[in-house]
């Protein structure tokens, strides 16, 4: 994510480089003006974010054997024998419910039979080609003028901000949770690159709504930011109103800044429905989860979801959600709603 500090640092580097820069062949050609270049950079950031995130994962999983996240080389399947922990850092918002089998294919040596949908990205690819990004092209930021460099970085920052703004407003708020259907295949996105980028940033490699729903939140029921350094919280499911699924459900804790799992004294990263037999229900049959950085005490520890000593990002996963009432479907309009998170009163 580009921050203001990143831009200032980049601007400083550009200013130094400009003092010794020479007119380049690239700039002598019909390169877009600085404003057009900035706008293309903004669109390109939104279009390219999921691709770059995916490439970064590929590099750690299959290319760099020295990476702590390396799984297996290309064309070799790796069957993980564990669910994700705080040590799994390649994928943001990792699923800690189920282990994965991972395979990256290299098609350079020989072909494999695959189905390729009709491209819907001709327009954005044409725009990116204008600034030197695309097949057979090499983009060199150092070859641009000072003005172009500055505008390109501003454009990327604006793209990043647009994704964050969309994530904050492009979902239906329900009791502090964001509920929507962000994930799907190429036909689902249908050229909506902002929707695709938002989905990647919220949680890369998710399922479509028929397979899983992913309510997520950074705030309590009143809209205040969740912060484990300031408050303890509770999440209570009323009696008979657990998430309605055909398979299972979970609530997973992430660091609010990195969206990665957090190290904690009981090695618990989520609470899910398979854990229900060992949990304690309230006298009225409701189920309360205790969300806090320190243990709520031995009598409540079975229901404790450890939180960071900082901001919190929570994701609820409903696998194979029911379609008959009560249901979370259609997304944002279902008869079942996730209950709000409240500051603890004990």
How does this model look, in words?
It is a single chain. By secondary structure, the chain is of the alpha+beta class. It has 2 domains: 166 residues, no CATH class; 137 residues, Sandwich (Jelly Rolls). It is built from 7 helices and 13 strands. Strands 5, 6, 8, 9 and 12 form a 5-stranded antiparallel beta sheet that branches. A hairpin with a 2-residue loop joins strand 3 and strand 4. Helix 3 crosses helix 5, helix 3 crosses helix 7 and helix 5 crosses helix 7. It is globular and about 75 Å long. It starts with a helix and ends with a strand.
Strand content: 5-15%
Reported for the largest beta sheet, the result is:
5 strands, antiparallel
Q: Secondary-structure element order, as H and E?
A: HHHEEHHEEHHEEEEEEEEE
Share of helix, binned: 25-40%
Computed structural class:
alpha+beta
**How much is the average pLDDT?**
89
Report the end-to-end length measured between terminal Cα atoms: 38 Å
Q: Count the E strands.
A: 13
- Enumerate how many helices there are, as a single number: 7
Low-confidence stretches: 1-23
Integer count of domains: 2
Q: Evaluate the radius of gyration.
A: 23 Å
Q: What is the approximate shape?
A: globular
